[in-house]
Each structure stands twice: as C-alpha cells, then as structure tokens.
Amino acid sequence: MPGMTAVAQSSSVVVEIGGLPIRLRCDSPDFLRQIEERYTGYVGSPNNAGFDFEIELAPPGAVSQDEDVCVTWDSGRWLMKRGDFRAEWNPSTARGRIQQTSNPYSLDSVLRIVHTLLLAREGGFLLHASSAIRNGRAFLFSGVSGAGKTTIARLAPPDAALLTDEISYVTRRDGPYSAVGTPFFGELARVGENLQAPIEALYLLAKGPENKIEPIVGADAVRGLLGNILFFARDPEFVKMVFDTAFEFVNHVPVRRLTFVPTTSVWELIV
Amino acid sequence: MTNYRYVARSAAIASRALGDETMIMSATNSTLFTLNEVASVIWKAADGVTPLDQIVANKICAHYDITLEVALNDAEALVEDLAERGLLLVSDQPLAQSSSSRGEAP
C-alpha cells in the first residue's frame, strides 16, 4: 500500500535443545525477547520447528507459587501443571498450550517436562547432573542437590566444554549414548555450550577426604541412576520406559562413584 | 476344603531381574524395590493361576533347605507386604494378568 511501510515482527521463537526445535508463540514481544535472551545459544531457525506451543501470559497473582508439579496423560494429551503454569501438549499433533506468568523460568520447567516426555520415547532422559566434554568425550557428574555438581563444573579445566552444571541431556538418537548441552543451569548461572559428544562415563558424586573412583555395577548402578533421572509423569507406561532405559544405560555406559575433594586435582582422574 | 491364594504381578509396575535379584519400580509413585533371591523366585512364579502354596512347595522347598510351613509363612508375609505396596495382586480366585494398555502410547 503506497505511503505505508510494514515491519515484519516475529510472534514466535524457536528454542532448540538436544536437536528438538520447539516453536514458542506469544503475543507479547517483550516476553519473546526474554525468551531469546534466556535461551541464547539455543535459539533455532524460525523456519524449522517440530513442535509448537502457544503461550498465554497470565497476570501476576493469577497463579499460586506453592503447588507441586503434576503431569498426567488424559484423552490423548499430556497435562502439566504447577503453581506457576498450566500446560497441555498433544503428541499426535505436536502442538500445545502454556498458560504462565511472564517469568521465563516457568517456561524452563515446561520445557524440561516436555523434553523428558520426548526423550523417554527414544530411550533418553534428563539427569540431575553436570556434564562436560573433554577430548571429544562427555562425562556426567550426578547427584542430589549439594552433592557437588556445580562444584565439579567450576573446577573444570580450560580444555573442558561445560554442557550444564545442573540438568544433563542424554540421548541415544544417533547410536551411542550422548550428552548434549542444555540451557538449564544451577548455581553457575550460565547456559551450557550447545555441543554433543558420546558419553564416556557417569560419575555419582560424593564428597570425601580424597579423590577416588570406584566402579558401581548392577542394582546399585541402576538405583543410583534412577534416583537422579528427572521424570514427572505418574504414568505406568512412561515409568516402564524410564525404568527400562536405566537398565539399558548401565549396560552400555560405565557407572562409577567419584569421591572428591573440591580442588582442581579431581579432574586429573577424569580422562 | 482348602483355601488357595493366588498371586499375580500388578500391571502398574516395571520389573527386571538382575542376577538373582529383582528390581521393581512402582508406576504409581516411582518407588524402587529390590527383591532378594528367594523373593524373586516367588515374584517370577506369581502368574495368577498357580496357588501360592504350590509355588512355595515346588519353587522354594524343592530347592532350598526349608520346611513347607516356615517357607509358606515367610511367603505369605512377603506377599502381604508386596500387595500393600500395590506390587502384587492377591485373591482366593485365579487372577488374569491385567494389561495397562490405553491404545496410543504417549
């Protein structure tokens, strides 16, 4: 139209974690900018998205903060809710909706849940673990809060590429189990590098008076792994998938206990 | 008249043998359980159609040095415990193994 100019303004952002591009649509340009900033390094091509979510921003105070996360399967949809969000996702249409406040960390939680659901179908999982790539191989350091995930990430030598200090992404889409960088961070407050490498070993962390590595096998390895896998869906088929995946993983990846003192010398053992 | 008890593994669990042990995860609350060698024998034989006393006689007493009375008492305590946790189904009638299929996998 003569005399008028139009500025194309995107109403969506594609966030690609673990090679799974998810389009996030929202009417609020401010929130989309927050998403782009939050997921720096993980913003994918706008023309390529396998999954689509419409985000509706609820006014502050419209949601409570004290409700636990709940994920259920109902009539062909996953329903996800917590105090700060309500979401649903239909796997057969690959589309979903999220109602949340404008806090991007609520979106973090939804994305984590969606990725656990997507990964479970392909034998992968999210793990409470820091991870890093060194010499082309990935190492996972798992444990509960306070076990030392962030500490070991902070102590990593310069030649190690840090994938995350909080939530590790494990996939076997390309054959061997691989770790992929994630934007999910802990105390380090830094997004991981968007890289991928085959997993060399999983270390279950323990703090102690000396650096020591011990193999963990059988039921102890499965128990240690299952205790740190993120899964939210209280769904029999989903639980079975995760359970079987844990056995598969310990059959293919060495699991070890890493007792360490918080100095850089611990990384001399990680080779 | 003898009162038979039949036991069957719940459909709302995932389980795997690991050596002589069995690991079980409840699908309803994700709690993890480990059964020892003897308990694993009962777990594996809990097909819903073989009475518990037959399982104990044929699978436990025939292979371990234990009397039927003692073994049956232990087995009943185990079965009660697993049933309370939702891992086993117990009935005085034969049980068909239930399926948790809901059509489309998520």
Could you explain how this protein is built, in words?
- The complex is a heterodimer of chains A (271) and B (106).
- Chain A is an alpha+beta fold.
- Chain A has five helices and 16 strands.
- Chain A has two domains: 12-121, no CATH class; 125-269, Rossmann fold.
- In chain A, the strands form two sheets. Chain A has a seven-stranded mixed beta sheet with strand order 1-2-3-7-6-5-4, with helices on one face. Chain A has a five-stranded mixed beta barrel with strand order 8-9-13-12-11.
- In chain A, helix 4 packs across helix 5.
- Chain A starts with 11 loop residues before the first strand and ends in an 11-residue tail after the last strand.
- The model of chain A has no long low-confidence stretch (mean pLDDT 92).
- Chain B is an alpha+beta fold.
- Chain B has helices at 37-45, 52-61, 68-84, and strands at 6-9, 13-18, 21-26, 32-35, 47-51, 88-91.
- The termini of chain B are far apart.
- Chain B has one domain (6-87): Outer Surface Protein A, domain 3.
- In chain B, helix 1 packs across helix 2.
- The longest helix of chain B has 17 residues, at 68-84.
- In chain B, the strands form two sheets. Chain B has a three-stranded antiparallel beta sheet.
Brief synopsis:
With 271 residues, chain A is of the alpha+beta class.
Secondary-structure blueprint of this entry?
The complex is a heterodimer of chains A (271) and B (106).
Chain A (H helix, E strand, L loop, with lengths): L11 E6 L2 E7 L2 H10 L12 E7 L12 E5 L2 E6 L2 E6 L4 E6 L3 H18 L3 E10 L2 E6 L6 H6 L6 E4 L2 E5 L6 E3 L15 E12 L4 E5 L1 H9 L2 E2 L5 H17 L2 E6 L11
Parallel strand pairs in A: 2-3, 3-7, 9-13, 13-16
Antiparallel strand pairs in A: 1-2, 4-5, 5-6, 6-7, 8-9, 8-10, 8-11, 8-15, 11-12, 12-13, 14-16
Helix pairs in contact in A: 4-5
Chain B lengths: L5 E4 L3 E6 L2 E6 L5 E4 L1 H9 L1 E5 H10 L6 H17 L3 E4 L15
Helix pairs in contact in B: 1-2, 2-3
